[in-house]
Amino acid sequence: MTDWDVKKLRILRTLRDRGTVTATAEALLMTPSAVSQQLSNLSRQLGVPLLEAQGRRVRLTDAAHLVLRHAEAVFAQLERADAELTGYLRGEAGRVRIAAFSTAVPALVVPAIQRLRAEDRLGPDVRVREAEAAQAYELLAAGDADLALSLAAHAPAARDPRFSVLPLLADPLDVALPAGHRLAAVPGLRLADLAGDPWIFGGSGPWSRITTAACEAAGFVPEQAHSAVGWTAILAMVEAGMGVALIPRMASVERHAGRGGVVMRVLAADQPRRHVVAAVRQGAERGPALARVLGALGRAAESFTSAEQRL
């Protein structure tokens, strides 16, 4: 029977995900030579070549991808075993590490934790780490987080066997206008009505893509007058009359407070949304503590959705 070494298989999977031996070594706190040696040993154990030279780099062979396709089922089963063992030892009081993007923390994570504490002071020990939406998946894949709150736009391919991805909510995007804007009080505001306005959004990254995609769906390309990535900076510029901006409702509920110079308008027929998801490693969702946290996040998302529907 073939000797399937789980530790070496994890190194091979990390190389696939990270792309280079150096990046793999950094992720696993190993030296590049140790990574290469472990993979050479795995290749001999399996009796197939796993890597081939590609210029100054290496690429995985078809045999390596075949091995990993089967190994993913092993990793998922080990996650389930670990979850069940943790449940056996700790019941529902295990530790759950959450990596969440900034606006999800006050809107979803904090309410979920408050719910858990109200239900049971001896419930899961939840540790929160703020991370960019894309980085949350990297932390999850590396084992540095147990649950990632991210955006569907950053989710891995639907068939990625490493993760279970669960939809939480569709977060509406409202438009922030200066208080004296010509359309601040006009009923039935549409995104296309703002095609000629200067816009404020990030120069790159997810929010840039979300803003431009929403505007292009409404029939125009936004003129980026100013670039900012933080909601405080964006709203300060809107308040100063420097432009208009799309703001996710998860951010505007908190950030708009106290800004009398900003008018938040709900868009009429073409309301754009961003989709928020929770992801865990495949099989880990069976753990009692993680299941409770997922349930609390689901209820927090339902409460948020019910509140925003009343707007």
Task: Please outline what is shown here.
Helix content is 45%, strand content 21%. With 311 residues, it is an alpha/beta fold. Helix 7 links the parallel strand 7 and strand 8.
Walk me through what this model shows.
The chain is globular. The protein has helices at 6-18, 21-28, 32-46, 62-90, 104-119, 133-142, 206-217, 231-239, 249-255, 288-309; strands at 51-54, 57-60, 95-100, 125-130, 147-151, 163-178, 198-200, 223-226, 245-248, 262-265, 273-281. Helix 1 (6-18) packs across helix 2 (21-28) and helix 2 packs across helix 3 (32-46). It is 45% helix and 21% strand. With 311 residues, the protein is an alpha/beta fold. The chain is built from ten helices and eleven strands.
Which keywords apply here?
single chain, 311 residues, alpha/beta, two-stranded antiparallel ribbon, 10 helices, 11 strands, 45% helix
List the helices and strands and how they pair.
Layout: H1 6-18, H2 21-28, H3 32-46, E1 51-54, E2 57-60, H4 62-90, E3 95-100, H5 104-119, E4 125-130, H6 133-142, E5 147-151, E6 163-178, E7 198-200, H7 206-217, E8 223-226, H8 231-239, E9 245-248, H9 249-255, E10 262-265, E11 273-281, H10 288-309
Parallel strand pairs: 3-4, 3-5, 7-8
Antiparallel strand pairs: 1-2, 5-11, 6-9, 6-10, 6-11
